[in-house]
Amino acid sequence: MDTAEYDLIVIGAGPVGENVADRAVKGGLTAVIVESELVGGECSYWACMPSKVLLRAGAARTAAADAPGTGVTTSGGVDVAAVLRRRDEIVHEWDDSGQVGWLQSAGIDLVRGHGRITGEREVTVADADGSESVLRARHAVAVCTGSAALHPDIEGLRDAAPWTSREATAVQEVPASLVVLGGGVVACEMATAYASFGCRVSIIARSRLLGGMEDFAGDAVATALREAGVDVRLGTDAVRVHRLGSGGDGGVAVTLGDGDVIEAAEILVATGRVPRTGHIGLESVDLEPGTWLDVDDTLRVRGTEWLYAVGDVNHRALLTHQGKYQARAAGDVIAARATGAAVDDAPWGTHVATADHDAVPQVTFTDPQVASVGLTEAAAARRGLEVRVLDIDLAGIAGASTQSADYRGRARAVVDPARDVLVGATFVGPEIAELLHSATVAIVGEVPLARLWHAVPSYPTLSEVWLRWLEAYGRPS
């Protein structure tokens, strides 16, 4: 059996694993990545990148229809074939040779196959032909295997061969109808995209849409989906699913808790995520397979000195950009510990992921877009913070009127008056994603509101919402 030794072994070659290895190599270590699928991971081929392409044409058409003189109207649909061709370009036809080339240029080795931990600082890799090799780490092993779609326990669901986000973003032929289970980001984005394709969409959510965000965000998305022709069912469950047709090769029938039955050509399950830790050998180091891995702020698995869990697998923030943020911290701290350099593990230090707790930004690319960072009003209350909430109707801002005569949007600031700083912000409206980073900077930097009066927003832009927030809060005495 072949063996090789490196300073760091990374299991999983998505953006998170790539960044852990890259930072460690830049810190003077040797590193190898083990990957059983495509280098570049979920984000590159089945999630962030292709999904945004699927959403772009519908969003652009809506924006163009709002601008008199473009000749574009809200009637008619998008050119689905052209959208799918562009999707294929973005995912490089599911060919990862470009990503492999980047690994080589960065000085990171790649081993293809399924990696499992078989002992302390040891990973055994099984190749497609069944042969095995052993990798040993001088210093650390990082688990960066991500997450997979959760299949809820619904009668008949598994037998119905449901889509997950992978099938939805990799579709080759858009079905005539689609039923979506779930009310989170994936469910809302895919409902938005498929409705723009002319597909008849139903969405079934146990509570409301976008449940972890401010209530008005989910309400606005639900309203927009209904206006786009989507059948939005809230506060209900699917209790049974079965395939139609004599051989189970037809569409699906979904029975709801209230007795209603919805039929569609396909069904998409988007009810949550589970960690991809079930078959990576955690039991060999006394950890429970199939569970989220508990880490400290340096991303080291608690109770170990050598094992790290970065990205989705630690369940801190299931977002690519947060995983990459964690990866930078993890790669740097692994290199520091390996070389005996000082470790900066104080809050907001070089080697910790403090922002996972208080300043996680996220954009939901529905129509309208939802962009949020930090604490919601409800989350602040759970923290015991006495906050002030500042709500602004974006339609009253000059920048909104230049975009559309019927602009609909809302922005909420959550302020901690004890410190006079912003602790949360949510923007809902067309094309408001680019507003988010300014709020992220204000929260991370704990910029006093008194100082923000001197950050003058450009006119006429939606950034004037910052001035409206300050005016609502009141000038310092």
From TrEMBL:
**Residues annotated as binding FAD:** 52, 115, 145-147, 312
Annotated cofactor note:
Binds 1 FAD per subunit.
* Database matches in SUPFAM superfamilies: FAD/NAD(P)-binding domain, FAD/NAD-linked reductases, dimerisation (C-terminal) domain
Co-factor requirement: FAD
One GO BP annotation here?
2-oxoglutarate metabolic process
Sorted alphabetically, which keywords does the UniProt record give? FAD, Flavoprotein, NAD, Nucleotide-binding
Segments forming a coiled coil: none
Recall the GO molecular function terms of this protein's record: dihydrolipoyl dehydrogenase (NADH) activity; flavin adenine dinucleotide binding
Boundaries of each FAD/NAD(P)-binding domain copy? 6-321
Show the disulfide pairing: 43-48
Which sites bind NAD(+)?
182-189, 272
Where in this chain does the record put each Pyridine nucleotide-disulphide oxidoreductase dimerisation domain?
A: 360-466
Q: Which family does it belong to?
A: Belongs to the class-I pyridine nucleotide-disulfide oxidoreductase family.
State what protein this is by name.
Answer: Dihydrolipoamide dehydrogenase
Tell me which species this is from: Microbacterium telephonicum
